[in-house]
């Protein structure tokens, strides 16, 4: 900096011989260039250069030669130096104008993820949305910068598959093939109607409002049994509904968590609605937002922006509703944050039920949501003392099996897992229907046990 000021002082003295300075500045080929030797390797920042030139201007000694010399040591054109001086005189600013850093919103990243990382698609989307749109090159630089900083885009194949599934669902809805929507009274009547086993091979429990997810499949002639676990789940959900809170129903696979929740919500109080939200495979926030929108059976097409989708969902959740998220263990932290945002929204009235094997571990990824859970309800294995009563109430076939054999089945294979008992019931039915004079003895039961037991 000091050397540069000395150069400027030398220039101020050299301007007395203006013609000689001009000759030195424009040295010809093969001629000794004094100016080049003096300024070789010198660089002066804009604030220092403009401040020195303003000093000379205030003293009445600023000349064109000074400006040309400043352009040399500043590494810019003469016109740029004059512009710097004009800005300093009019605006009082010697520093460069601060340039706003381009930051991509979460909505822009969702569009980019849905496009498989194609920045051109994001650029077209921003143009269609209107407003000030950065250049394509600026978008590329911003995306590259954030990716280098650790931002991760979903796998292109996953995004493409989700987009194709969304397009298929939308096409079915446009063609009115997704099923006619019932009016409000018909929906309430269907929600209150008790389940009736179908005459086919299985009976399906009603899935609740909107038919968003498949119900519980049962073998023909079977019926759900209100066990102690079902009563405990019903009590926990009832308390959560009273406080519009959250409850987590967890336990090992096959213990009947989903069936217990469905039985608990089969008859909700008047004014309440129940919505089951299916969790996509490898869910993203965009996929979860679409799943909630579809589960609520909102009219019209799915909005193109997340803000419009969130507004529509929040409006639908303004009435008392139980929002059940089954297989919640699949949810990463961003999807849990999305559900928390719906629950925390001041305009919503939600009782959030998170159900699934490992859902309690999934909630540990988001402590702020974990702390809001008012009840942690585990669905344990069937106790040995209640196995006989439960399975004989579940299907009349087991009433023909002696109690010691039921205990032997549970200790050998089922281990209190309700799903295993349901599978054994279906196999036993098929064996009795396809084998003439089949006897329900330990030989037949042992063969069926090997069929449902996983290979070691």
UniProtKB/TrEMBL annotation:
Residues 183-206 are annotated as: Disordered. It comes from the Bacteria. Residues 244-357 form the ORC1/DEAH AAA+ ATPase domain. This is ORC1/DEAH AAA+ ATPase domain-containing protein. It comes from Streptomyces vastus. Residues 183-192 have a biased composition (Basic and acidic residues).
